[in-house]
């Protein structure tokens, strides 16, 4: 989705993310489309049903190859993206609080491991399914217990 990163970056990132069972082969196919060969069926399944995946901050759409494959139109699609929330009060850094904040942006999917273990309370990373056909928020204004705070622009990627 968007302009593809350089081939070297794609190959290096795929092998770093997915290459524990062996080398991942990546071949350019058409403009912004790539064929990816996995060393095992289990690594293929792990990648297809894991994710969402991003390379260089750009979301990937993965599917099994078929001879009629074409570039997918995402203009009206829900797209999972990572959002980074800063200045989130500690009182809201619970599963319920973060779910409410994520819901203001779209459908919350999951949070990163540092967030789950509260290792980086200054930076919360959530994966949220966002509908990019609707206007995007650029700031969350949060009010709770007679306090308020603003959480500024947070999208890791925009179309």
TrEMBL record:
Pfam families with a match to the protein in the record: DUF4283
Coiled-coil spans in chain: none
InterPro entries (alphabetical): At4g02000-like, DUF4283
Residues of the DUF4283 domain: 2-69
Entry superkingdom: Eukaryota
Entries under PANTHER family matching the protein: GLYCINE-RICH CELL WALL STRUCTURAL PROTEIN 1.8-LIKE (PTHR31286), OS10G0362600 PROTEIN (PTHR31286:SF180)
Name of the protein this chain belongs to: DUF4283 domain-containing protein
Species: Turnera subulata
Lineage of the species this protein comes from: Eukaryota, Viridiplantae, Streptophyta, Embryophyta, Tracheophyta
